[in-house]
Amino acid sequence: MKPYESFVYPDIPLDIREKLFQKDKQMVIVGVLGKSNEAHCNKLVDFNILHTHPLLSDESGAEGRVKFYFRSEGQTLFLHFDAPFDNFVLLNLAERMMLEKSEESPLHFIEFNSAIRTRFARVLLFALQVCHILVLAESSASFDMSYLSIFKSLKIIREKYVLKFLPKMLKSANVGSFMGKDCRLCSPRLLFMFTLPDNGETHLLDEIDVLETKVEDYINKMLRNEFIITNNSTMSLFSLPKTKQFVFYSVSKTRSQDPLIESIDLLSMYLSKQQQTSTGTLPDKDEQEILEQAKPYDCFGFPSTFKFELKDPTADEERGIFSLVQEHVEDALEFGFDENDSSGRQRVRTHFALPTTEAWYAMFKYMHELFIDNPNDPYYDAYDADYSAYLQNFHDIVDIDERFFGEICEQGLDLAMLKYKDMLPPHYSASFHETKYQEALHILMEYARGPELKPSIERLKEYCDAIWQSGKQQCEYPSLRGNPCVLGMHKTIDPAEHSSGVIYVSSCNCGRTQGHREDPYTIRQANYEFYQIIAKSCSNCNRLERVPFPVFEPSVSDFRAAEFINKNFSNLMSFDSTGRTASDVGPTVRPIPGHTPFQSGSQRSQNSSASLSFNIGSDVEEDDEEGNVVKKENDRRNRHGEQNPPEESKETEELDALDSNDEEDGELDPNNEEMEEIVIKLGKLKHDTDSAVGETEHPAGPARLPSTTEYLPGMLHSACPAGLLPRFPSWSLVCLGSSSIYTHNTSLPEHVQSGFLSGSNFLLPWDTSVRLEHAQCWAASYEKIRNRKKGNQHASKGYEHNKTFTLKIFIGVEYECLRGHRFIMNAPDSILRCGSEIVRDSGSKVVFNDMPIYFPCPCRNTINNTAQLMRVHIITPKAPVNVIIDPKVKLFQNNMQNSITFTTGMTEPIKLTQSSYWILRLPFVYEGDSGPLMAPTDVNPASAIMHGVLLAGMYGIRENELNEESIAMGVTNTSG
């Protein structure tokens, strides 16, 4: 038998063309398609028609390659298809497709599997159109169930698209006139070739025959159940022979053998046998047998002009796939294929065409263009509508996996969109939007899988963002308390137009009335406007005496906010061991046992006009450090020229202090030996003369006037530029009236101060000892004036025997939470729970210590229970001295690494009137040069001072100005 000629389409050598296209030559077309594990991908190895083993050639499998095998005298034309199911073709495709994908969107396995299935389905459909017989090769012993979906898809495609466009296109191309209305040679027979595993076991032919019969029944039943084949072969994708075998199990080891290695082994065996003989040579017969076995292929070593013939595989009685194929070929040549069921009344004639090879090849070329070349060209534009629909829908119909995952992604996406739209408010914040999106995404992730997962997530994100941004986006401009604006997105000129919808409860300046306040967006709203509004509802606020704080007073109409570089000097200050900066340290003081140093007023007040110097020390300490703080007398000194002797002033002041000792109020206690002692060295009595004998006036430096064209945009603090004032006050200081409003036994009444927690409405007593050192002339003058006012011209009490008296001042450091709960603290880390906790001199703990600005409220509010220091209650005593205050609030940032100290802006400490009830209201919100300082939401009592403090040294004592009017007032108070 002559060897098979071969060529790769479309390159046909001239000599082969002449042999193939002989006049009127007809051939049965047998296609071989399927799976292989070798690099050459040639599945004809088991057919034993190759005179050269594929492994000896340098060719490897290539997708879409069609190789022709035929003999000129034969009547069978083999078409070998290299398809994507061949392992090495599959590997090359995977590498190429992964390179085409970017790193941002890597190749998904479902995408790759879908592409491979689509490519294989195109080749399979093409093979079924141009072949009489198709052998489906399997590299395993079982049927691949994934073929079922491909078969069903191709049946749909053929009936829905191919039978529409192919007849008219074949007619227009003037090829394939023999194809008939089915546009194919016949209903092709499909044969299955499986490979038994090479596990060393011997397989009996009877067992293999039984296996083949069972598999045939299984495949036939399965294909009929899926309606892939029917009784009418014309309506079937392919046909199965009813009376002939169509399943073959190969036991040949040819496919897995390497002929070159076996030839080397035979040659080695030959040499070893030759050495074992005595003569060193083998008999000619044995030598020729071994050499024949060692040839890698037949006629190896012969010249190319040598004529040789192969053995006919059908001549051997051994079973083989080639013999099975030849039986079907002979059947086709003799009878054609008729697989219809003839049990009906009328026999349906089937189409079977056996054209000449030349006519068939012309049809093959055109069909290859339609089914293989054009679909692989991404730029091809079909002119026929039916053919264009075929190209567009082929992948969607074949790719059931990708379609399945796409459908579940769509279902999950619909449910996710419904989840997002469920119960949406009119406007909502970005955090709420993100929460709803995450809930929708969770629903999507429960359904979505496959390559459409990422696009579905992107579509969901775009959908949710589109809904949110189309009128539902919340403004979210933060308030000074950190709450977002709940209004829709809007453009505002004034931040006060925002609204967070949060309502707080706060008290008015005097503390009598509580009311609701909106969450502030400006410092003016927080620290000024609210208290102006609630004052209209309060029966007390607008009638009370108040201390005005310095504010900006414009002199021009086009005034503006000052622009300056924020150097934030407070951040540059170094902290001492107490965490306080140098700017917060007052004058040199004597330490008090059990207390921190008391400081009287701010640094500015020490350099301003004053008429006293005082220190604090124990009763037994010497007063050798008196006069450390020297203050100038104020302008009243210039209006009084008369000077009293120091001795008289001293005696008069002491006498007035003794007379004003009211035991009912408990304000003066001359027998207290353990209280802190304030030493006051009194100056001269002021009269109408303009000169002061014996004292040199210190000239005051020029004071910088505040600007009348530029105002301070924030709040006053220690590092803000000099000469700039705010447009409104953030502090308030009012006098409720006489000190008799408060009774220590009954605490603050509810109608005077509302909102206090039970047991926490007591003020704390602060007992401080005052020792007067008079000039004799001052005392004498004081005594004369005092006796004249009383109508007693003679000396009264022996004030010389008692130069020391005790002042009892009541102090209350009040905190208020956002729900309106108010309470007094009796220590920096302790809340006053009841009046029984108050002991003698309890106020010293709050006077001589830094008090935290923020502290946890004992109420049950778990969301934000932080209370803020809002008021300081001060009840001044009946005495010839005044209580002065200089409040400073120091707030810390970045774990106390930075700080800023807020002040009232007063040039001197504020002097409070005698025997009065004063309330200092602190700012609700603090703002520095860089913006508002947010109040903490979670405060620990042990570390509350880390957020901010009201600095110690706020309180002090100053002499009352000595003139006839004040002395007369003192005499009246004493007598009353």
UniProtKB/TrEMBL annotation:
Keyword match Calcium: no
Transmembrane segments: none
Listed Low complexity bias regions: 599-613
The keyword Manganese is assigned to this record: no
UniProt-annotated stretches for the region Disordered: 581-672
Lineage: superkingdom: Eukaryota
Biological process terms in GO annotation: nuclear-transcribed mRNA catabolic process, nonsense-mediated decay
Protein name, entry field: Nonsense-mediated mRNA decay factor SMG8
Species whose genome carries this gene: Anopheles minimus
